[in-house]
Structure of MTH1187 family thiamine-binding protein:
Amino acid sequence: MAMIDLTVTPLGTASTSMSEEVAAIWNMLEKYEGKIRYEQTAMSTLMEGDLDDIFAIVKEIHELPFQQGAKRVATNIRIDDRRDGKEQSIQEKLASAKKKMA
């Protein structure tokens, strides 16, 4: 199972606001519920699941701002692809770190 932190930044738009683009991404992700797990944050979207599935979704997400009129889109992807046999969800990673804080 892979985990991705994704940030999409549309450039060349009429506004500095990105809430419409973010809402479009969130609406698009709803159709993948059950196939991947995801969380939205104020600064990025976290996804976990099969890497091939996630890459296909990332491509679709990258295209959304262009469909809304952006002239340029910068997409940043950070991938955590653990293959040592231990699968760990986003929530499990957070719980592990919090446990070590005590």
Notes: The longest strand covers residues 2-11. Residues 21 and 27 are 10 Å apart (CA to CA). Residues 51-67 form the longest helix (17 residues).
